[in-house]
What we know:
The chain is an all-alpha fold.
Amino acid sequence: MTSSTFQSIAPRPAPVRTRGLLAWCRLNLFNGWATTLGTVLVGAVLLATLPRLFQWAIIDAVWVADYTVCHASSGACWGVVREKFRFILFGRYPFDEHWRALICTVMLLALIVVSCIRACWKAWLIPLWVVVLAAYLTLMRGGVFGLTPVGTDLWSGLPLTLLLATVSMGLAFPIALMIALGRRSGMPAIRSLCTVYVELIRGVPLISVLFMASYMAPLLMPQGFSLDVLIRVLAGITLFAAAYMAEVIRGGLQAMPKGQTEAAATLGLSYWQTQRLIVLPQALAMVVPGIMNNFISTFKDTSLVAIVSLYELTGAMGMAMNADADWRPFRIEGYLFIAVIYFGFCFSMSRYSNWIEKQVNKSKLR
């Protein structure tokens, strides 16, 4: 009978934390020598610039709306925002009627927030959009109920930005859906027509489309017939956004396994039943980031309408600065102010996109 000697097992290394701030820093900032080097370089640049930026933006900044004090200071002049706040937000819209523009902005923002809440995705949401947009146009244009008439050429600032972005996005999505389905159609005429549309629109910049919509389209209309410039610009932005969005949706359609449609055919489903019940729900879920990216791009591209004399948020800010020589040197602070507004909207859309992705991916976690 042999005797055995007890030998202890070497201790295993302690488990590494996978949650918390230190774990996040280890994974994202110091994960290998290349990542660590990049973190150190970026940190050095931030340490060199942030103190001076903080000094300029906060410590030496002027907060009072007095341009003489701003000229004598070496810091940022945030007083320009206080002085030009209403002109930046509402632009050329009549000063005494700014309350109408404010109500329209609040209504549209509230409707957008309600539309993003899942519990509100009901049949009454579409009629609500029609009612709110009708109220928006009535209140902004005036001429009824004792309101002073205001032409669309005076609509400016944030209300115009929201109108252009929301309406063009809402109209572009169904158009893009039909174009994407048309590009995968078995009918050569429809497929060719959709392909020509996408390639033609994507082959020119948005500025060219806006010029065509604003200056060339009236020349092609019958004599005596004219569309409002706002409608023409909305149509141009919508068609431009639809072309890009159609390719995003087509990517989702191409990613669908062919067995899905074959299984639907064996069940006797028609083409439109297959698309509505099986293909589109899965394809759209796969391209949520791309669709939201297109929405964000469209929202920012509304700043280009200034070239056709429609002054949205960016154009209104530039006009407010150029009209007053005393405040003109502080346009950087004005641009930073509207940059914060754009960032707030774009970041909110990005976060909402992440929430949508989590919702549509819940079925994959089962």
